[in-house]
Amino acid sequence: MAQEKVLVIGAGPAGLSAARELTNLGVDVILVERESYLGGTPKKLKYSLLFPELRPASEVLDPLIKSVEENSNVKIYKESIVEGAKSEGNGFIVSIKDKNGKVTTEKVGAIIAASGFEHFDSRRKYEYGYGIIPNIYQISDVERMLSENKLVTTKGTPPKRVAILLCVGSRDATVGNTYCSRVCCAVSIKQAMEIKQRIPDAVVHIYYMDIRTYGLMEDKLYWKSQLEYRVGYIRGRISEFMRGPDDTVVIKGEDTMNLNRALVVPYDMVILANGMELGLGSKQVAKALGLEFEEHGFVKPLDPDRFPVLSTRKGVFLAGAITGPKTISDSITEGTAAAIKAYEYVTKGVWEEPVKVQVSSH
Amino acid sequence: MVNKALLSTLPDDPRYLDASYNVQGPLPEEDRNLLSNLKPEERELAKQFWEAVKSDFRFNEYLRGCLNCGVCTSGCPAAKFYDFGPREMIQYMMRNEVDKIWEFVNKKVWACVQCYTCSMRCPFNNEIAGLIMLLREYAVKFALPSAKEVLAPYRRVLLTVITMGNQVTPDMIQPDAFPDWGPQAVEESKNMDVYRKAIPVDLLQRTDIGWHSSLQTAVEIMTIFIESGVLDSIKKIDKDLYDMIMDIYEERKQTLEEIKEKWKKGELKEEDLPDSWLEL
Ligand code: SF4
Ligand code: SF4
Ligand code: SF4
To answer: Which of A105, A200, A292, B159 suits A318 as a labelling partner, its CA being 20 to 30 A distant?
Structure first.
């Protein structure tokens, strides 16, 4: 049997996990990454602590990166994209283009698309004034500020009053995103606690519609932030921000616990919990591989319940946030799942098609 | 796909379904029924009113659902000045609370300035300002006392809109008429004539109209208002105003026809044609 090869697109948590798993199974990996480093969005945006355990992101990612980078069975193309994938037998001939435009072709038995998400760009919610009003940041900006220990306002001092607004770019038909991004509640509360750890006398308010710290995160984040850090929760979505005196940001909201009670409150710093979208990178991947999209604009799995890591194209597997908002641990799990499925495919030709089952009472 | 059949019904008012009424001891149906929040003589009307609004073809297009986020109310300029908020209306609607809707339509609904900020920002894409307009339209259709009361000071506005196509004429900008305009209105009202004369357009040197429309245009405007049913609504709510407008309409229409007739027969020279009905 010739040495089997699988192409993995994207070196974030899902892609790295898939690559590691495949090499463990004795399959060679070709890893294509758009950036000049491995680690994906968490590395790119310099994530600080990860929820819910509040452990440094590098503690989770670095061993994964190391195991892939140092593995001689993984051939890595950095600063490259996959341009196309022609079917040949059960496998593919893929063309990989580097930043100088040089195209290389590789023959692989299967493909795992794990090119991930991009954060919503809050400038699209123009009434929030992100990018125009000073001292308004996104959670994706704050991660870097926290990890570099530079959480300061434009005055150069740590903020004493911070507001965090949830669901920016998610659950919002005005920007076309009617889904929940799943992680931003947890990230925001984690950031609130991190801010309180560093600036104990800071006032931190979270403006929410619902708190979605589902599963085991409820007490580790939502409860703990109140018990140990006295983070304030105000129920209402902010409708607009104004520039206040002295570079403060004034929020306008409704305290929906009290009918018609308007809130106009100044803060030193405002953080927008921007959500997740597929992003241009994964759109390009989907186009190059001929994949379909589901109704929210993410890549469509063959069957969301039965085959969540199979794509609609035979031999192409999916892992991570390419199919919808995911946590880092979910992405790592899916990377493992996709690796197993790809392994079955390249070694035994296993590709299950969803069968229509007659269900009597529906 | 939206299921139209399902959409047509709203959930029953949850307060009415509240079982604690039973736990606390039996109450006569009459008392449990929250319609008892309404004056007995208004109950039927309140129900009819709400049913009429719900059966309007726009209702289920405009009302989609609600996250209770408060974005509509917090961006609403009217909510700043009055005990009013678009979210409260949406909530009453979603819960099918006929007594609350009745209260809302008889007082609060008139606070909205139809700026459409709420509609534009609502993350659930409700057409909130449209729903407010719907309530108002039906308030006028049902000739509710509140509609009469609210529209009374606007008789002159209605008259000028319908007869001249002008909405607010400069001399209407008086501090007592528009208290919410603040000190600006006081200042403007003081020297209205002078300001107006400074406008170097001949026709605008007076304060009782905003601009001229020709006789032909004026008749066309009025025809549109009549044909679209606006005058029918006014008839119920303000019979005097209706009569007045219809008199003016008949008179103008006749004048216009006479002029056209003369013109056809060649009895009028071009320079004899009026360029404004005000000069007739
Ligand atoms: S996870 Fe929380 S902040 Fe993010 S979209 Fe869902 S509810 Fe909103
Ligand atoms: S349209 Fe009416 S309810 Fe909506 S924001 Fe404007 S004033 Fe408020
Ligand atoms: S903005 Fe829309 S979703 Fe939010 S409270 Fe108002 S009606 Fe409900």
So the answer is: A105
